[in-house]
Design goal:
Keywords: Signal
Domain DUF7035: 863-992
CATH class of the largest domain: Mainly Beta
Largest sheet: 6 strands, mixed
InterPro entries: DUF7035
Distance between the termini: 18 Å
Shape: globular
Signal peptide: 1-23
Protein name: EGF-like domain-containing protein
Length: 1101
């Protein structure tokens, strides 16, 4: 980001600024409730709120206590208790703890205390309180700053800021030479931490206005801009500006009126040329065909309503037509006459709905809303008559997936969802989540969900059912008698960071590696871990999960576990949360925490933003060059440009459109690709943008560039392109209307098994190409909900030919859920090159052409459920396997069933269950491992080798099973215990391993432009593998290294990992004798080994 700063010299501020606050005391040390503060030190006693980078100070407090200091476990620092501006203290903040004394250290960044609410003062003494709490103490022991500063004068924290409002050095209004794009250019000096808001009202001669706003605007050249595409047809040709607001981050504001702008800058009014095209007064008229009596619609059957709509011209589109309960289809009879078909499904809520559609051009917005009353007077409540479970009792079980069968019935409605409540859930089972044994109206709903007996008790519970009428009822039921597992939230957690600085000086991505070490006596494991900025915004970190093979575990002895992870930041990640850079603190969020271990405030983390560097577009070319381009002869416009300055990580071209079109049409944005990568020598990068313009309507297109300069989004406004002498617009000569529209000549359907066969023929007499035919399979009984574009109850198949015959396996259609079966129909939609125009053939038209009348069977069998492991276990298991002299082999058999498509893949784990050995790896069972039966009911076997010198107890578990249709069923270790009596094995050795492997060296060399990591071990002992982890959330977080002789292993195929440019930290694990010996990146650094690589990808920045 570039800001203009001026130095404001205020003498008394210099007098306030000093280095450190010392602990010298001339009075009695303050004592509260047995705590005595013997010294306090601030690393900085004055913080500047006007610094663009958040400043901080570190407090160091020495305490003495008449009680046992070991009971001190939490505390806080606050500048405003009422507003919740806290710095929380935990045992991590306590150092040098003795029986009666301790040192407390914590970092206080400006953003965490909201600049101490300095508001419009130039300087304030920041009042604060520091509180401590001991075990058994119900309230905090509070030290307030008056008594602290009386004892320690240099403990006063002073906040200063600049109060000078922004200065507007120049203001210009420029209209584009060929059209109605208006640019407002501002040269602004800022004396604070940054520009917060730029706002301006633009009025026409009748007093109508639009407000143009830029929040936290960025600049590429030191100037700021607002640009606005005006419509002379809609708002006239004469305009003036008023209410200019320029506000900085400290709230200093400059406000200027029309008169002031005219007086100071001779710039407040402008004119645009009147268009030669006659203006329209409205876009359409309509007739409601056969409206229902009293505007009432029966909810007992599907009802169809139509509207005849006459359009002003062929460019006018009917947008987002809906009945609130269904999508409506636009059936074109000619290019300016449309019949809108709206089907209303049955079994809905008795209330008022509305038909609605809109239309717009650059200067007119037109909307139609017609209310209707939906009648469904059946007031019977839905019923649940029985619930069955996959277990009879739950006796202190660990978390497991429980299966339920729920018998239900609805009346003039269908099932919306079922919710288990009062089991500390709730667990909602809705339409996408259940499998049915009957229908969506009545029958059996089956579902599987993760249950933890510690928090979920099914002994007595309430179950709620809700139907499509929004009628609901609950039932108090008794389920499996549940005895909760013993659990104590005793987890202790410490985090160690490899660095505290995110430095973007020479990089567009920064990572900080860290390790988490947990300890527990009562199986309080870490299954989820988040790091939050400002207590609410989640940061991007590596996965941390004790139960996941890829959850970052480095070692575990059942009570102490170490994980490795990392934080990844890009410059704009915190910019989205109003943080430019500087110091900040973070929060840890995880299940099973104690309040004393929830925050990291001992030190601040620091973000060093990218250096400010002007970046200009030095070349821009269009092909075809124009200025007039025939869109009927060119499918694409190629825009190529070059920048010079800072690195541009991404780029796109954005078309301007008028304010009226913004809510209805997404602003046209076209991403660009790197043509010539960034050169750190020339500071240049080249981009190429292919923009589809085929059959674009006649118009003048103005555009700007959106660049990610050092990953910070920065516009290159149209005015900048103009002033640089670069192309800033192009003119389109579009298609001419012949009044004709596509027609459907043939439509036939048939059905066999799960295959829908469609024969169709469409004639296209228009002047427009039609390259895509969409066949929508929609649910006639279950309406769509939410946004028009979501089409939650619609799925589609696509063709490119105007006629033909094809088959659709409806079970392969994404979104074809159980509730479609017996309830679906087909309509056709053909997207036109004209914006918003879709030539559609509604269900009601097609069903009359179809000899089959779209009569589809309700016996379709789609595979919605995952495979099931019936049982598994070790064949001929022994009490133990002696690996003293040689390796041993075991065979594990799995009996797996699947109802339809058949089994495909099982993922399992082998995990150590002894304190002396750590081992946690996954294995796979494939359909090719079948030894008897078939894919629907078969036995599969895999062999597992127990290497020599293995020693420990190991548990085999199933994680998930997948079928040929990609349905998945999940399991836990507790589920494995249900399914097997032989899933635990014992390995034993009477001899110690004579050569336990360890790392001798790690090298990273560049070979033919590629990183080549070589790991050399110091032993010749037999190992199973070396796994390397990278600090990336990719599908391959761990990579097997390839042996290369002489105890060395390597990897160099980083180009296959789809990595972006940046530094990646390395973790290594050596697998041997059913043991994992792992090194985190922090371990490797401490041992003096290479622990990271820098990977350069010129095309992914």
């Amino acid at each position: 980001m570039n800001y203009k700063y001026s130095v404001l010299t205020v003498l008394f501020l210099f007098a306030l600024i000093n280095g450190q606050g010392s602990s010298s005391s001339g009075t009695t040390n303050p004592t509260v409730k047995g705590f005595t503060m013997t010294s306090i030190n601030l690393s900085k006693t004055t913080l500047n709120a006007s610094n663009p980078l958040s400043e901080s100070t570190t407090f160091t407090v020495d305490l003495q206590y008449t009680g046992d200091m070991a009971t001190l476990y939490k505390g806080f620092f606050s500048t405003n208790i009422d507003n919740g501006w806290y710095i929380y203290l935990t045992t991590n903040n306590f150092f040098n703890v003795t029986a009666n004394s301790a040192t407390i250290q914590f970092c206080v960044p400006m953003n965490a205390i909201q600049n101490c609410d300095i508001r419009h003062e130039q300087s304030i003494q920041c009042e604060y309180v520091i509180g401590f709490r001991t075990v058994g103490q119900s309230t905090y022991t509070i030290f307030q700053s008056p008594i602290i500063s009386e004892a320690f004068p240099n403990s006063v924290l002073t906040i200063v800021q600049n109060l000078m409002q922004p200065a507007l050095n120049s203001f210009n209004i420029n209209t584009h030479q060929v059209g109605s794009l208006v640019t407002f250019e501002f040269d602004i000096s800022i004396f604070a931490s940054g520009l917060n808001k730029l706002e301006l009202d633009v009025y026409n001669s009748t007093g109508e206005y639009v407000t143009l706003t830029a929040d936290k605007p960025t600049t590429s050249n030191g100037l700021y801009y607002l640009e606005y595409l005006v419509s002379a047809e809609g708002t006239g040709t004469e305009y003036y500006v008023d209410n200019l607001l320029i506000r900085d981050n400290e709230g200093n504001a400059l406000e200027l009126s029309t008169g002031q702008l005219q007086q100071k800058y001779n710039s407040s009014i402008f004119k645009i040329a009147k268009s030669s095209t006659p203006a329209l007064s409205q876009l359409y008229t309509y007739v409601f065909n056969n409206p229902p009596a009293n505007n009432s619609v029966s909810g007992t059957q599907i009802s169809t309503f139509t509207f005849n709509i006459s359009l002003a011209d062929f460019q006018t589109a009917i947008l987002n037509p809906t009945s609130q309960l269904s999508l409506c289809s636009t059936y074109y009879l000619n290019s300016t006459f449309v019949t809108l078909y709206c089907d209303i499904p049955p079994n809905q809520d008795d209330r008022t709905y509305e038909f609605k559609w809109t239309s717009a051009n650059p200067y007119i917005y037109q909307e139609t809303t017609i209310e209707y009353k939906y009648l469904n007077d059946n007031q019977e409540l839905p019923v649940i008559s029985q619930v069955q479970y996959s277990v009879e009792t739950i006796d202190q079980l660990q978390p497991f997936y429980i299966e339920t069968n729920i018998t239900f019935e609805t009346y003039s409605a269908y099932l919306r969802y079922i919710s288990f409540t009062r089991v500390n859930g709730p667990y909602n089972i809705g339409l996408p989540d259940v499998q049915y044994g009957g229908s969506i109206f009545s029958g059996v709903a089956s579902a599987s969900w993760l249950l933890d007996s510690y928090t979920n008790n099914l002994t007595e519970y309430t179950i709620l059912i809700s139907d499509s009428k929004y009628y609901a009822d609950d039932f108090k039921l008794k389920g499996p008698v549940t005895t909760p597992r013993y659990y104590s939230e005793d987890i202790q957690l410490t985090v160690e960071f490899g660095s505290l600085v995110f430095d973007f000086t020479n990089s567009s991505m920064a990572k900080i590696p860290f390790t988490i070490t947990t300890s527990t006596k009562y199986n309080d494991i870490l299954t989820e871990f988040m790091i939050l900025y400002d207590y609410s915004h989640e940061m991007d970190i590596g996965k941390v999960d004790y139960n996941d093979v890829f959850g970052g575990i480095m070692t575990s002895n059942l009570t102490h576990t170490t994980f490795t992870s990392w934080i990844t930041l890009k410059p704009n990640d915190l910019l989205e949360h109003d943080f430019i850079g500087g110091d900040f603190t973070i929060t840890f969020d995880y299940e099973g925490y104690q309040n004393s271990l929830h925050y990291f405030t001992t030190k601040c983390l620091t973000l060093i933003p990218p250096p400010a560097q002007p970046t200009i577009v030095t070349n821009l070319q269009l092909s075809p060059s124009g200025p007039v381009i025939d869109s009927t002869q060119n499918d694409f416009l190629t825009l190529q440009f070059q920048t010079k300055g800072a690195n541009v990580n991404y780029a796109s071209v954005v078309f301007y459109q008028t304010e009226i079109l913004h809510p209805l049409h997404d602003q046209p944005v076209f991403p660009c690709e790197i043509e010539v990568p960034y050169s750190y020598d020339t500071l240049e990068v080249e981009y190429k943008c292919n923009i589809p313009i085929g059959y674009l309507l006649t118009q003048t297109v103005f555009y700007y560039l959106k660049l990610g300069i050092n990953n910070v989004e920065t516009p290159i406004y149209n005015s900048i392109l103009q002033s640089s002498g670069l192309p800033s617009f192009f003119e389109i000569q579009g298609p001419v209307d012949n009044g004709l529209v596509p027609t459907i000549q043939q439509f036939e359907t048939s059905f066999s098994g799960n295959l829908l066969n469609i024969t169709y023929a469409i004639d296209n007499p228009t002047t427009l190409p039609l390259n895509l035919i969409k066949f929508y399979i929609f649910n006639r009984n279950v309406p769509y909900y939410g946004d028009y574009y979501e089409k939650l109850s619609v799925t589609s198949a696509e063709r490119t030919l105007l006629n033909g015959t094809f088959e659709i396996n409806v079970c392969d259609l994404e979104g074809f859920t159980f509730d479609f079966i017996g309830n679906f129909g087909v309509y056709i939609s053909i997207p036109s090159p004209l914006p918003g125009v879709n030539y559609e053939f509604p269900y009601d038209i097609l069903v009359n052409m179809d000899s089959n009348k779209q009569q589809f069977p309700n016996t379709i069998q789609c595979d919605y459920s995952g495979p099931r492991v019936v049982e598994f276990g070790i064949e001929d298991i022994k009490p133990y396997y002696d690996s003293s002299s040689s390796s041993q082999n075991i065979t594990v058999s799995f009996t797996i069933t699947d109802d339809l498509t058949g089994f495909s893949l099982l993922q399992g784990t082998i995990r150590s269950n002894t304190s002396s050995t750590f081992y946690f790896v996954d294995f796979y069972v494939f359909d090719s491992d079948l030894v008897s039966g078939n894919l629907n009911n078969g036995i599969y076997q895999v062999n597992i080798t127990i290497p020599q010198f293995s020693n420990g107890t190991y548990i085999i578990s199933v994680i998930s099973v997948l079928d040929q249709n990609f349905n998945k069923r999940f399991y836990t270790t507790q589920n494995a215990a249900f399914l097997s009596k032989a899933y635990v094995f014992e390995a034993y050795t009477s001899l110690d391993n004579p050569s336990i492997p360890s790392i001798q060296s790690i090298t990273n060399t560049i070979v033919s432009g590629e990183n080549n990591i070589v790991v050399t071990l110091d032993t010749t002992s037999e190992i199973s593998s070396i796994l390397m982890g990278l600090s990336t959330n990719s599908d391959t977080p761990y990579i097997g290294l390839t042996p290369m002789g002489s105890n060395s292993y390597h990897f160099n195929a980083f180009d296959n990992l789809d990595l972006s440019t940046g530094t990646y930290y390395i973790n290594l694990c050596i697998e041997y004798s059913l043991t994992l010996k792992c090194y985190s990146s922090l371990d490797l650094e401490q041992l003096g080994f290479t622990n990271n690589i820098y990977y350069y990808n010129p095309y992914i920045q």
